[in-house]
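Side project, low priority. Logging it here so it doesn't get lost.
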Amino acid sequence: MAKKDYTLYWIIGIGIIVFVYGGNAGWFKSNFSFTPAPEDLLPSPSQPVYSTCSQVCSTSGFSQAYPFVNFCKNSETKITYGYPNQAPLLVCCCYNEATPTPSGTCTETDGGNVPTTPGTTTADGVARTDVCLDETSLTEYWCLSDGTWQGGRHFCDPGQICIQSRSGGYCKTQSWNTGDTVMSGSGTGTVIGGQQGYAEIDLSKYGLATGGNCQLGAQLSVNWIYANDRCVGIMGAQGMLWEFYDSLGLEYSRIDATPAAWTVDLHPRGHILNWDGHTVWRAIAKQNPGNTPDCIINYDYTVRVYIYECI
């Protein structure tokens, strides 16, 4: 047999050994399940990462979707989509919209298709409140002449922003009413040892130049737990330190000796919150110095800034 024939068989033999061993070691295995199950919208490297609420809601069998702002209405389903133990990629309100039938029973509180006025449209016993989709657009509902209702996305005019008030979402310029939500947001975090987590709030992004003749309020909600047994020796003794800073500096602080869920309202009755038009507000979470270096604490928070009163 020629030398080149021996060389060929040697290469083929090595190839067979590598293929068999590699297959046993799992080198060539692939996961072909590319669509997340509706009940488990947690992406993995083998699944697509969705970028819109329409994709998230469609996967769960819903035909309608919009980003969660402050609440989902009673007939809608809130779906949080993202990786475990990380801030959500998307938070969505999902629902299936029934085809309206003429009944002559449609009523509205804002005078019709008027995006500059918050309102609720009620048809066939179902109430639909105008809601902000983001900072510059909203879903506006109104009645038609045949007694049915209609809804659609409306983009605010230049210089306007969408405000989510107690009566619904609406477009407006930089003038405010008592109870208006300036901004709201939520998140999760983990702190280990001397680490700290914080959220920054730049109110200028939400159309608030300064406090002007309006006083601001803020609501902060927190929940936290020990995430490992390294904290056992200090439980009940150290815990977490929480701080809230407005434009002038430290405005509120709190120490939790043990895991707790709580909500605090900061407003002019006890706290004069200052917004100077440019200095960001901060909410800070950190462990007390006595905690062991490898103690892990998980927390989640929600913060809402609103108009307490205009004078």
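Brief comment: Confidence is low (pLDDT under 50) at residues 6-46.
Revisit when time allows.
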